[in-house]
Amino acid sequence: MTLTWNEFLYGAKEIPFWAVSLRTVILYSFLIFATRFMRQRQIAILAGHNYLVAAGIASLAAVRMVNPETSLVAGIVVIILYAAANVFISYIDVKIPRKVDRRAIILVENGKLIKENMKDARITIDNLLGQLRIKNIFSLSDVFLAVVEPTGKINVVKKQSTLPVTRKQMKFPIKNVSVSTILIYDGKVQEDNLRSLGYDMKWLDNKIKEKGFLQVKDIFLAMLEGDGTLHVSA
User: What transmembrane ranges does the database entry give (predicted)?
Assistant: First the structure.
């Protein structure tokens, strides 16, 4: 089957499989370009218009990937225009945030619902209680502050009286908590990570022997957790 350049760009009732594949790769490449152009804000979907852009671009591109009669050129133009419009609106949102996106709204304060704010955020009591249960909060009286963010996520601050006792309050020594660090991966010591923590091979050998391992090559993953314990997996 012969395919003209015009049919490849603007679509046809039937096009070869290789042409469909190439059109898909081109559209996907433009999606990647658009995502990089819109930067981290779009990936995180921090505002309503960011969500609309993500959903719109993906759906429009998908249609053109599977339907040979659709125009490849039109798909590329739509992706570029969507990305440009999103960047422009995001710029306005940074300069004049209240004109584009919603503000954070307080739903519960000191255990009491704020009825007007619930209506303004279009959130029902069942929605709110469900979100609280996800956070292991089963009573409104335990909530000091509940805020719905512009993203729709509900953040909660519990009352101090309901929080567990901390090591500081019990006057226990404070443990140093940091990011977990890989020390051994696939039988190889990550020497840079080991040195950055101030340890040497002798310390690591002693630690893995305590875990019942004699050789580094027998270990698939050894990771120093944030609380100072060594996790080892063969």
Answer: 15-34, 46-66, 72-94
Strands 154-158 and 143-148: antiparallel
Report which of 229, 134, 128, 135 is spatially closest to residue 183, judged by C-alpha positions.
229
Task: Please name the residue that has the structure tokens 């090559």.
Answer: 217
pLDDT digits (tens, 9 = 90+) for 168-212: 666 655 555 456 888 998 889 998 888 888 888 998 999 889 888
Give the strand pairing for 181-185 and 188-189. antiparallel
Helices 17-44, 48-66: crossing angle, 10 deg rounding: 170
| Residues 64/15, Cβ–Cβ less than 8 Å | no
Total residues belonging to the chain: 234
Task: Kindly list the structural domains of the chain, giving each domain's residue range(s) and its CATH number in brackets, ordered by start.
Answer: 5-98 (no CATH), 105-162 (3.30.240.20), 181-233 (3.30.240.20)
- Mean per-residue pLDDT over the chain, rounded: 80
